[in-house]
Structures are given as C-alpha cells and as structure tokens.
Amino acid sequence: LLLAVLLWAPWRALHGAPLTELSGDQDFQLFLQRNLEFTRKIRGDVAALQRVVCDTLHLCKEDELLLVRQDLDIAQAPLEQCHRRTFQAETCFSQIRAGLRIYHGSLATIRALLPGHAGLVETLQLDMANLSSNIQQQMEDLGLATVTYPTENQDPVPTFSSHFHHQVGGFFILANFQRFLETAYRALRHLTSL
C-alpha cells in the first residue's frame, strides 16, 4: 500500500525526494530493469524496420513527408501522463498499455507493406503484447486500477487511398511508435532513479 501511495506523488516531488521505500522494493526495481531492457529491444526492432523503409522505399526524412501526412489518418498514441509534472504511475502505465495496443494493430500496415519482414513484425507484436502484459501484472501487484483489453483487435487498421500513401503511412506509424517508445522508456527509467 505504501508503494502505491508513493507512486501517486507528483512528478516534481518524485524527482527531488529520496524515496528509499520505493528504491528498496526489489520486485518493483526488477520489474523496471527487465522492462527497460524489453523496451530497448522493441525500440531496436522498430529502428530496424525504419531502416528497411528508408532503404527499400526511400522514405527516410520526416520533414519531406509532412505535406502527405496531412492526408493520412494515422493514430498517435498519447503519453502526456508520462511526462507531466503531475506524473502518476497508474495513468502513465495505462497510457503505455493503450498505446501498445494501438501500435500493435497499426503494425498490420507494416506487415502488408514489407511482406519480406513479416517475421520481424510478428516478433515485435509479440514483444509488445508481452510488455503490455508485464505492465498489467505489475499494476495489479501494486494494487493499481487496470483495464483489460479484449484479445481481438478492436482498433481498425488504417486504410490508404494509394500505394504511396500506404508507404508514407507506414513511415509515420513507425516514426510515431519510436517517439512513443522513447517517452515510455524515459518514464520507466525515471522510476528506477527514485
């Protein structure tokens, strides 16, 4: 219970206060270390797919594609609860899980775009599902509220009006996902420093 109360403290207080009670919780610290590594692996796999998109489709620079992006309906998962000054672990973890679910579905676009790399996409989707499950389990262990998502994907896969839009959409899905993972990684890393 004390751990759950400490996790509700504002970001500013967490940043400056030496919370020995939290840092001494070995199970929580082990969870954070394992999932930092897991997040790092997922980031590496997304970066590998971004290199494939750059090398094979010659879509490498985001600023060159911004005009096309306006025509696309690409989901961008919010993570504002993971870097606000009023940081709360429960809402941050919930946003990470919701974002993983959104990107899990969006990766079907990448699999269709890069059929030769379907194995990497499937591995990435499995890793994302496992990370989400790890976070849910940790939230339950801490007594935090969790949302259980249905196993079948409820989010529609993006549709595109042309093959080029499909390619650019794939580029932005990966770019958005990489930014999402960087924020999630920073939030987990911050919790290790408490």
Structural account:
Helix 4 packs antiparallel against helix 7 (118-142), helix 6 packs antiparallel against helix 7 (118-142) and helix 6 (89-113) runs antiparallel to helix 8 (163-192). This protein has a domain at 26-60 and 88-147 and 154-192: Up-down Bundle (Growth Hormone, Chain: A), CATH 1.20.1250.10. With 194 residues, the chain is mainly α. The model is unreliable at 1-23 (pLDDT under 50). 68% of the residues lie in helices and 0% in strands. The chain has helices at residues 2-7, 11-16, 20-23, 26-57, 66-69, 89-113, 118-142, 163-192. It has eight helices and no strands.
Quickly list its features.
0% strand; 8 helices; mainly alpha; elongated; Growth Hormone, Chain: A; 194 residues
- Rounded to an integer, what's the Rg over CA atoms? 18 Å
Summarize the main sheet. Answer: none
CATH topology of one domain: Growth Hormone, Chain: A
CATH architecture of one domain: Up-down Bundle
Total strands: the figure is 0
Strand content: under 5%
Distance between the termini: 17 Å
- Reading off the top of the CATH hierarchy, the class of one domain is best stated as Mainly Alpha
SSE pattern: HHHHHHHH
Low-confidence stretches are: 1-23
Total of helices: 8
The amount of helix comes to 55-70%
Structural class: mainly alpha
User: Overall pLDDT, averaged?
Assistant: 81
> What form results from the Cα inertia axes?
elongated
